């Protein structure tokens, strides 16, 4: 393994992801133009018309379209969608013309429909992470008197299972199925002449970071071994440039190979240690605490986390029953007995115990105790203060985007105005 510093340390974090604006398209060279957004859109001009790779959200698409029209106003020949997520497909209607071909993987509809089916659930569960950005965006659009375009619901005109070769206006594109990313309909776009690979979000929104095998907003589990296989598949191409769904391209065959190998090996390490622990009868929480990557496999944890992936791998294989308690099998949660515990132990005693745990550097144990009190008495001021202090301590050490967003949300609920 190379001793080169991991690239993720020098790249922007998730807080830098922003919706599209009226900024001009960026010339990436090699006949590729980028319009940045919640997921970037890309323009590939050809002699037969334009190829668009991903279209952003519906409300971003007019900005993407204007940026690309300023570069090339020829007909839009083909739209390629790298996955069936809203931030890739939502803007299709702003680009689609009568003769435009829409190309996706054959399982695209599964993930498009999955997000439509659970739209209210996932919006509710992710709003805390994006609320500030979306409020600022809608305020900007309101001042500009823009009407928000609706999300598109595109139907593909061309699909494929494993690979598809396209020849358009003198450009060759090879579309390759890579089901190990955020969706099993994920594909990458390989440009063989320039050895350039457009990966969409196969490698997550933050290149060089551990994959997020399940998000806390609520998604289908993503299989670790499928991810490993997909990374191996793109490594075999030996790309000289990788263009992802966010931020600047990654250049240099050696750098890319080092990064991809590290991501692949780190994911396999976590998978194998988790499986070994399961077979040895270890508890899932033990494994979440203990499994750590060795220094030579260092990757970022800015969007996913190793501990979360341990649990995701466990539950991908074994499901929701962890063989810890009979109560897992039934619909009575732990909170149902909180009033009894408070009655027996006393709220003051439980809060005092939480304070002792907090003083001992155990904020999570403190939160367990305050959760009991607050389940019985949601307005208990002392429990709220102790819980808030525990969240402050956790927030001070958190670097993951989703973790920080959740801790800030919870802190604001416990101590309004503090987050």
Describe, in plain words, how this protein is organized in 3D.
The protein has two domains: 7-264, Metallo-beta-lactamase, Chain A (4-Layer Sandwich); 331-414, Serine Threonine Protein Phosphatase 5, Tetratricopeptide repeat, CATH 1.25.40. 42% of the residues lie in helices and 15% in strands. The protein has 14 helices and 13 strands. The protein has helices spanning 61-69, 86-89, 92-95, 108-117, 119-143, 224-235, 253-279, 284-290, 306-318, 338-345, 347-359, 363-376, 381-397, 401-414; strands at 26-29, 32-35, 41-46, 49-53, 76-80, 101-105, 158-160, 163-168, 171-177, 187-191, 196-200, 241-244, 250-251. The strands form two sheets. Strands 1-2-3-4-5-6-7 form a seven-stranded mixed sheet, covered by helices on one side. A six-stranded mixed sheet has the order 8-9-10-11-12-13, with helices on one face. A hairpin with a 4-residue loop joins strand 10 (187-191) and strand 11. The mean pLDDT is 94.
């Amino acid at each position: 393994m190379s001793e080169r510093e991991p690239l993720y340390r020098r790249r922007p974090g998730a807080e830098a992801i922003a919706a599209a604006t009226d900024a001009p398209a960026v010339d990436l060279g090699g006949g590729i133009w980028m319009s940045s957004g919640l997921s970037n859109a890309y323009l590939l001009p050809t002699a037969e018309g334009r190829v668009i790779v991903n279209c952003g959200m519906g409300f971003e698409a007019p900005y993407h379209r204007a940026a690309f029209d300023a570069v090339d106003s020829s007909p839009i020949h083909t739209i390629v969608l790298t996955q069936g997520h809203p931030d890739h497909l939502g803007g299709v209607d702003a680009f689609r013309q009568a003769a435009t071909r829409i190309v996706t993987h054959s399982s695209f509809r599964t993930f498009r429909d999955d997000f439509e089916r659970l739209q209210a659930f996932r919006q509710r569960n992710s709003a805390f992470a994006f609320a500030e950005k979306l409020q600022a965006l809608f305020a900007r659009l309101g001042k500009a008197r823009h009407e928000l375009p609706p999300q598109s619901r595109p139907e593909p005109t061309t699909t494929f299972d494993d690979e598809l070769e396209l020849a358009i206006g003198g450009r060759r594109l090879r579309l390759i199925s890579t089901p190990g990313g955020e969706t099993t309909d994920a594909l990458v776009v390989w440009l063989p002449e320039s050895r350039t690979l457009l990966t969409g979000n196969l490698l997550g929104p933050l290149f060089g970071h551990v994959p997020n095998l399940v998000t806390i907003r609520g998604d289908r589990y993503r299989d670790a071994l499928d991810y490993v296989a997909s990374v191996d598949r793109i490594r075999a191409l030996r790309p000289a440039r990788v263009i992802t769904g966010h931020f600047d391209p990654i250049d240099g065959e050696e750098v890319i190979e080092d990064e991809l190998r590290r991501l692949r090996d780190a994911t396999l390490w976590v998978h194998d240690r988790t499986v070994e622990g399961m077979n040895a009868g270890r508890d899932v929480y033990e494994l979440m605490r203990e499994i750590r990557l060795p220094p030579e496999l260092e990757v970022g944890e800015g969007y996913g986390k190793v501990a979360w992936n341990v649990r995701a791998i466990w539950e991908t294989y074994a499901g929701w029953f962890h063989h810890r308690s009979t109560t897992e099998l039934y619909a009575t949660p732990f909170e149902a007995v909180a009033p009894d515990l408070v009655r027996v132990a006393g709220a003051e005693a439980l809060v005092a115990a939480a304070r002792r745990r907090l003083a001992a550097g155990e904020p999570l144990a403190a939160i367990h105790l305050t959760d009991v009190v607050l389940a019985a008495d949601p307005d208990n001021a002392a429990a709220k203060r102790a819980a808030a202090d525990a969240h402050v301590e956790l927030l001070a050490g958190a670097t993951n985007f989703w973790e920080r967003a959740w801790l800030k949300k919870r802190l604001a609920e416990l101590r309004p105005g503090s987050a």
